[in-house]
Specification:
171 residues, 5 strands, globular, ATP-binding, P-loop_NTPase, aromatic amino acid biosynthesis, kinase
Length: 171
């Protein structure tokens, strides 16, 4: 089984993916980490040194590479991955099950405020600007996210509740 978790930054894709992979005895792959290892640079360094166009091209290539592998896995995508380079079509035509990890604007903003320093995209926003940015960005990306095979709302649920719901959804 191949499982793909997609959604906005701070929706919990990596946290959920790591836990789900343990429960299902499957490998966990974080696409951004995979790209960083392959390119021997952080995502920020890739953006700085080679630009977003280069990043989106290799992101598409590595996504296909992972999806074409024979192994079972839980794959956590970057927040923008489904929105570029026909990646959503690649995902939907693969054998993988895609799940949109959905969280409200309020939930996303409160999580992002706690981890702003680790998120270069939002590090310089004040609280109000961050809420506006997330709302606008989420609106633009929702078209892609909503195409996933499943949508799982995570608001007001702890990690174990989310994992239980995912396991039910996948069986």
């Amino acid at each position: 089984m191949k499982i793909i978790l997609l959604g906005y930054m701070a929706s919990g894709k990596s946290t959920i993916g790591r836990e789900l992979s343990k429960k299902l005895y499957m490998n966990f792959i974080d696409l951004d980490n995979y790209i960083s290892e392959k390119e021997k640079m952080s995502i920020s360094e890739i953006f700085e040194n080679k630009g977003e166009i280069y990043f989106r091209r290799i992101e598409n290539n590595y996504l296909k590479e992972i999806l074409n592998s024979e192994e079972d896995f839980v794959l956590s995508l970057g927040g923008g991955t489904p929105c570029y380079a026909n990646n959503m079509d690649v995902i939907l035509t693969s054998q993988a099950k895609s799940i949109y990890i959905k969280a409200s604007i309020g939930t996303l903003v409160s999580r992002l405020l706690k981890e702003k320093s680790e998120r270069p995209l939002v590090a310089n926003f004040d609280d109000e600007e961050l809420a506006e940015f997330v709302a606008k960005h989420l609106f633009e990306r929702s078209f892609f996210y909503q195409q996933a095979n499943y949508v799982l709302n995570t608001d007001n649920k702890d990690l174990q509740e989310v994992i239980t719901e995912l396991r039910i959804l996948l069986h």
